Amino acid sequence: MERLKLLTGTAACVVLTGLAIATAMADPVDDTLEIDGVPMITKAPAPEGHPFEEVLSGWLFREAETRATEAESFANPGMFAVERGAEIWGTVEGTMGKSCASCHNDAAESMKGVGASYPKWDAKSNKPLNVELQIDKCRVENMGAEPYKFDDADQVALTTYIKHQSLGTPVKIDLSQGDMQTWWDKGKEAYYTRTGQLNFACASCHEGAMGKYIRADHLSQGQVNGFPTYRFNTAGMVSLHNRFRGCIRDTRAEMPKAFSDELMALEVYVTWRGTGLSVETPSVRQ
Amino acid sequence: MERFMAALAIAVAFAGGASAGEIAPGDVKFEDMKVTASLTGAPGNPEEGAKTLANRGLGNCLACHAVKSLSKEQFHGDVAPSLDGAADRWSVEQLRAIVVDSKQALNPDTMMPGFYSLNVGKNPRKDLVGKTILTAQQVEDVVAYLATLKE
Asked: Which residue of A137, A140, B11, B39 is 20 to 30 Å from B84, comparing CA positions?
C-alpha cells in the first residue's frame, strides 16, 4: 500500500513537471545513475563505425521524477514484473515436469550477464534468438510446454527477470557468430529506411532529431538497454518488440510481426548501437 | 473521356473525395521550388488553417515547429525552425510547395512529411495507401494561415 501511494504520487509529479518544462530543455541531463547504489554506465564511447561518438541511455532524456523512480527499485513498479518472473522461474510447466530452475538452478548465478549478450546466434534455427525466443525454445524443447503468445504477461515478466540478472553489465553482442553480421546489415538497412505515410526512418527521430522535442517527447537515441521497460503512460511493462512496433505504427506504416526476421534484424542492429551501456532492466519511462 | 473518368474514380476513392477542380497529388507542378496554382482553385481560410496546423491527427505541425500565436496549444516541438515570420521568408507559392512536398521544395532528406504527396515511405498503412496526409482544401487553409505569419 505504502508503495502504491508512492507510485501514484510519482506519476502525478511526472505529469505536472512534464507540462512545465517540456519545451524548456533540449539536451540529455548531466547526471549519473545508481540503482540501489550500483553504478550504471549511461554514457559510453560508441563502437567503431557508429554514427555517434557517445552512446547515451534513454534514462538521460527523461524527467527528474522518472529518473528517480528508476534509481530506486523500491519505487520502481517494474520490479513487480521481476518478482513475478522469479515465481515463473521456479514453476514446473509442460509435459516433462520441469521448471527453468530444474536446468538452470539459481538465476542470480546462471543468468548473470546473459541478458547483456543477446541476441545470440542459434545454429539450429539458423537465426539470432533474443531472450524471448530463447525462453520459448527452452519451453518447447526442454519442458514440453507451449511457446508464449507475444506479450503474454508471463513472457514479459520472465524476460524482465532474466535481463534483470544482468543489471549494470554493459551490453555487448557477438557479431562474429554464424551469420550475425548479415542480420546486422539488414537491421541497419531497416533503421535507415523511411516507412509509412509520414515517411520517417528510425534514424529520422533517434539520430537526426536526437535530443530534440517532438511535441512533448524528448527524443533519445532509442536504446534498448532498459527493456522490458515500465511505462507510466500505460501503467505496465512494454516489451522491446512492442516498442519497435509502436514506433513503426507512428510513421503510419503496417507493423511487422513481433519476432519476425525484420524485427529480429532490427534488434541485432539497435542492440549493437547501444554497446557499452549497462543493462537497466526494468527501466522506467513516462 | 474514359481515362478522365477512371482518374476521377481513383481520385475520389483515394483522396476520400477530392472534388472536381482540385489538382490531384500526382499533378501538382513544382517550378523553381514554387507551386503557383491553388490546389483547389480558391484561396484558403486562415482560421481553419490554424486548426489544421495544430490538430494532432491532421497537420500536427506543432510536433516539430513552434508558433508564437498558437502558444495556447501545449507542447510545441523544436525539431524544426519556428514558423514565426515564415511569410517574411517565403512567398505563398513557396509555402504551398513546402507544405505539399518539402522533399521536393526544400531538401530531399528533410524529416518534414509531404502533406499532399504520394511519395511516401515503405509499407504505408493499408487504409492510407494512395491517400495524402491533408486534403487540397486543408493544404490551402494551412498555406493561408502561414501567409499571416509575419514579424
From this structure: B39
Predicted complex ipTM: 0.91
Please, what are the averages of pLDDT over each run of 10 residues along chain B (151 residues)?
Answer: 42 49 95 95 97 97 96 93 97 98 96 98 98 98 98 91
We report the CATH number of the domain holding residue A235 as: 1.10.760.10
**Cell numbers representing residue A91 in the block:** 514453476
Write down the domain spans for chain B: 2-146
Q: B37: distance to nearest CA of chain A, Å? A: 24
Q: Specify the number of domains making up chain A.
A: 2
* Same domain flag for A123 and A83: yes
pTM of the model: 0.91
Q: Tell whether A19 lies on the interface with B, counting CB pairs under 8 A.
A: yes
CATH of domain B2-146: 1.10.760.10
Same domain, yes or no: A33 and A127? no
Q: State the DSSP code for A206.
A: I
Could you tell me if B58 and B114 are in contact, meaning their C-beta atoms sit under 8 angstroms apart?
A: no
Peptide bond into A282 cis (omega under 30): yes
